[in-house]
Amino acid sequence: MVSRTPLTSISTAVTSKTALLLCLGGLACAPPPEDKPEPVDEGPEPFSWSATEEKRLGKLWPLESPPADPTNAVAEDDAAAHFGQYLFFETRLSGSGDFSCATCHLPENGFADPLQLSEAAGTPQRHTPSVLNTAYNNWFYWDGRADTHWAQALSPLEAEAEQGTNRLAVAHLVTEDPALATAYGAIFGEAPDLTDTERFPANARPITNEPDHPEDVAWEAMSPEDQHTVNQVFSNIGKAIAAYERRLIRANSPFDAFAEAVITGEGDRYAIPDEAKRGLRLFLDEGRCFACHSSPSFTNQEFHNIALPATEGIDNESDGRTTGIDLLLADPFNGGGLYSDDPESVELKLEYLLLSPEQDGQFKTPSLRNLMTTAPYMHGGHFTDLTEVVRHYSEMDDKPLVGHREELLFPLYWDDDQIADVVAFLVSLEGEPLDPALLEQPESPLLE
Asked: SS3 of 413, please?
């Protein structure tokens, strides 16, 4: 390759020579004005990228605004987001009064949990994923058993290992606490009267395969109309929480500035270090990482079996996506159900879900953005740091415990330097910090 001197270097050299001649002639020996900064040495010429690499890079940038969620009529409503933020941090939305969504989705840990398995009302069998940037998701949970943001927000409330409450208790709280009822009414219309405990017991929920459970017995004793009333309140609570979570977006990473420069010439080619550029090249080419992490969200929104090793405490032999589809289609709160604000918008999405043995052991491809504070990684918290994650993909020496490994994956035999380069690239995907006002419970559930 022919070495070319940058125009900025030529200009600097000419200017310096002219200044020296003027100074020797006694014409310009004064120091330069303070408002003229010294030239910045930007280092060596930028990496060159092949047409194929640039094309693939163009699929990873830009990260635009999240897609609309027509199943949630209040998804973009400021009052709903404020109310949802209050509920996200509200410990009264748990059976014991001790746990909130933020118990396991800690703001200081990227809205994930630094523990392998969270500790709330019990211990779930999967690692708590981050809710950052989840407004871009097509599916929720590691197995995709929810298809909307608001449906995902509901099931932890009733999960015995998470918040351990029930929809009647939640509905009573929100409709009978004066401040919560006022906030609810401002968004969804006047809250229903649930004070008749003959019709609306204090605690009730449907429980599959446990017909003798007191909460299921109480639920089945209710009329279908009263069940619907409670479900409407419950789903609205999920929609408010989802409206808040849609605001938890970290974008404008160093990678984004670099990608803009390569693609448009307008960004900063020096926004990421050389080791990150080398890691990006491995990501796009040899490592085939791009095949699954193939959008500006760095996920293809699909599910894969990556042959993770067994790890203590989790459901190692789970069918993953196979079970997830069954649970999704049976969920009355899915996007095509009665409580969706636009069930037709997801009709095709649900209709063409296929169950196949190929899906056994598959779990969701997570986003690679904003990973630095969300360790440990994978659905079972298998790996404590990103070096371990990349090394797993490089070695591929574990047999799948269920199903068979994704066929795109094969050993890469990367050395330590190459692994470090890929980690450096992943670090460059860290976005700008969130507004601090989003990181704690507001004083009031009402938006003033």
From this structure: coil
